[in-house]
Design goal:
Domain GST C-terminal: 90-213
Largest sheet: 4 strands, mixed
Low-confidence stretches: none
Structural class: alpha+beta
Bound molecules: glutathione
GO biological process, one term: glutathione metabolic process
Protein name: glutathione transferase
Mean pLDDT: 97
InterPro entries: Glutathione-S-Trfase_C-like, Glutathione-S-Trfase_C_sf, Glutathione_S-Trfase, Glutathione_S-Trfase_N, GST_C, Thioredoxin-like_sf
Number of strands: 4
GO molecular function, one term: glutathione transferase activity
Length: 224
């Protein structure tokens, strides 16, 4: 008999929350195991054996180990969904979803991590203005994508929406989104927030930004 899928996680992590959103949408129950990356737990030897890339999320589906949130979300849909709408099998439709998943990795999350990691891990005491503006350039791109439909790949929600919202909601207080300039982006965010599954994203998205601001405040007070 197969047991629950194990998710190595911490809800602060945006990629972890994209897996939580996808699993919730599919009705999959997960066994959660904390790996606190802020305390370096991802470098423990037992964890490195299953994920030498030392990132969360990782899943263990009865011995099948997968890491990278985008790969995990696609796998969960391919294996457990009753239809393929969240990750279409049609090769053109899937290529469009893959493009947005890579946009999350290469643009959204990459720019988030280059703002957050120097603060959390390298003792930096401020985020340079250009990095915030560089993050905000992604809002132009999101606005352009959303000209083609209410979701990031047209009029059907896909795992790309879960991945992109998990990242954007984790950085929108650090790199604010101008309501007047980005109406489509704001409408999409509200659409995502209204989904029942969205609840699994709320706490972690706020907590990671609070952790960033707390760390910056601590650094400033140490300097004074
Ligand atoms: N592309 C990866 C990125 C995962 C990632 O970098 N996760 C961060 C937490 S938000 C992490 O585990 N960092 C610890 C490390 O890199 O050592 C994914 O989508 O899963």
């Amino acid at each position: 008999m197969s047991s629950k899928i194990i998710l190595y996680h911490l809800s602060l992590s945006p990629p972890v929350r994209s897996v939580l959103l996808t699993a919730k949408a599919l009705g999959i129950e997960l066994e959660l195991r904390d790996v606190n990356f802020l305390k370096g737990e991802q470098f423990e030897s037992e964890y490195l054996k299953i994920n030498p890339q030392h990132t969360i999320p990782t899943i263990d589906d009865n011995g099948v180990i997968i890491y990278d949130s985008h790969a995990i979300c696609g796998y969960l849909v391919d294996k457990y969904a009753t239809d393929d709408s969240l990750y279409p099998k049609d090769i053109v439709a899937r290529a469009h979803v893959n493009a947005r998943l890579h946009f999350d990795t290469g643009f959204l999350f990459a720019r988030l991590r280059y703002m957050f990691e120097p603060i959390f891990f390298y003792g930096e005491n401020e985020i340079p203005k250009w990095k915030i503006e560089y993050m905000q350039k992604c809002w132009d791109l999101m606005e352009a994508f959303l000209a083609n439909g209410q979701y990031v790949c047209g009029d059907t929600i896909t795992i790309a929406d879960y991945c992109c919202i998990a990242t954007i909601s984790s950085v929108d207080k650090v790199a604010p989104i101008d309501v007047a300039k980005y109406p489509k982006l704001l409408a999409w965010i509200e659409l995502m927030q209204a989904l029942p599954v969205y609840q699994v994203n709320v706490e972690g998205a706020n907590a990671i930004q609070e952790a960033l601001f707390d760390t910056l405040a601590k650094r400033k007070s140490e300097e004074a």
